Amino acid sequence: GVDKKILVIPGDGIGQEVTAWGQKVLATIAKNYNHTFHFDEGIMGHVAIEATGEPLPDSTLDKAKNSDAILFGAIGHAKYDNDPTLKVRPEQGLLKIRKELGLYANLRPIKLFDELLEASSIKPEILRGADILFFRELTGDVYFGEKKRTEDRNTASDLMIYHRYEVERIARKAYEAARTRRNKLCSVDKANVLEASRLWREVVQEISKDYPDVETEHMFIDNAAMQLIKDPKRFDVVLTGNLFGDILTDEASQIAGSMGMLASASVGDKVGFYEPIHGSAHDIAGKGIANPLASILSAALMLDISFGLKTESQRVIKAVEATLRQGYRTMDIANKHTENDFIMGTDAMGAKVLENLN
Ligand code: IPM
Ligand code: MN
């Protein structure tokens, strides 16, 4: 078996509740397949600000750099959302760890489990068979460009900036992935207006020449937002920048039924970072009703991408599928049209997945 160091960072809100289940699934896989996973824990976000004054303490960053993979929950707290003037914010922790670990490619697979066809607000015939893999650039763009505010506080700007090498490296990753799927890549930008997008498109066009077997399409972000809901099946790999990717993948979560279902993998230099795409959801935090499946599916992505354990990863996905087939649902994925579901909380749902793993 393999021997790996996993850092668990539950973070804030429902991150605490759901990440415990991602970790339990990893521990169960280790036991069943004779692997050794050493778990350590780190703090980040609002909990870290309260404890140390910083959203990402050096102790957590050091542990992160020395681990093989990281399982992360969520960060955020209502207090900051309602007070934009607060200078130290939970999100800074997440952005800093992405930058420090060189996690430039954020993979967000959007796949609808057949069992959840009725859970989405989109018509089943539009959704059936949709299977998209987003490559969201994660360490550039307007997220990391210079931020400014004039002295009189009345004018503000954020610089949207991309360098050629940043577009190149993620484009190559996305093309390689397209080759293992349906050989289609859609690059999303706003090249009709933005210079940073014109560079993006230019670079993707160049890289596309190395992948003549992959069909390349370029789409403007506004059109992409519409096409995604109108006909999600037309997409295979979608490649886009940090801000557009943030927005498009929340929209795409509706294709998978719920935000509570979507996992993501952030990769780049060395360490892999795995997290649900949902946030800390303070409105339901502490109630024990959050969906643990996104964290569990993030664990599955870790097994596959960071550790190369494809069989084990598939085993986790099958266990999730079996749980859904048995009719078990958290509130967010309850079937809107029938009453055949067993609606349960985070821990009961997590326990069902563990049962199906054994
Ligand atoms: C995400 C989140 C983050 C982002 C926030 C919390 C900074 O929305 O991972 O999608 O915008 O990248
Ligand atoms: Mn987001």
Automatic annotation (TrEMBL):
Record-linked Pfam families: Iso_dh
Domain (Isopropylmalate dehydrogenase-like): residue spans on this chain: 5-353
Main localization (coarse): cytoplasm
First-tier enzyme category under EC: oxidoreductase
Pathway info: Amino-acid biosynthesis; L-leucine biosynthesis; L-leucine from 3-methyl-2-oxobutanoate: step 3/4
Protein location: Cytoplasm
Keyword Cytoplasm carried by entry: yes
Entry EC no(s): 1.1.1.85
Matches recorded under InterPro entries: IsoCit/isopropylmalate_DH_CS, IsoPropMal-DH-like_dom, Isopropylmalate_DH
The protein's required cofactors: Mg(2+); Mn(2+)
GO cellular component: a single term: cytosol
Protein's GO biological process: L-leucine biosynthetic process
GO molecular function, one term: magnesium ion binding
Site (Important for catalysis): 143, 190
Family membership noted in the UniProt record: Belongs to the isocitrate and isopropylmalate dehydrogenases family. LeuB type 1 subfamily.
Primary role: Catalyzes the oxidation of 3-carboxy-2-hydroxy-4-methylpentanoate (3-isopropylmalate) to 3-carboxy-4-methyl-2-oxopentanoate. The product decarboxylates to 4-methyl-2 oxopentanoate.
PANTHER family membership: 3-ISOPROPYLMALATE DEHYDROGENASE
Assembly and binders: Homodimer.
Protein name: 3-isopropylmalate dehydrogenase
Source organism of the structure: Chitinophaga jiangningensis
Gene: leuB
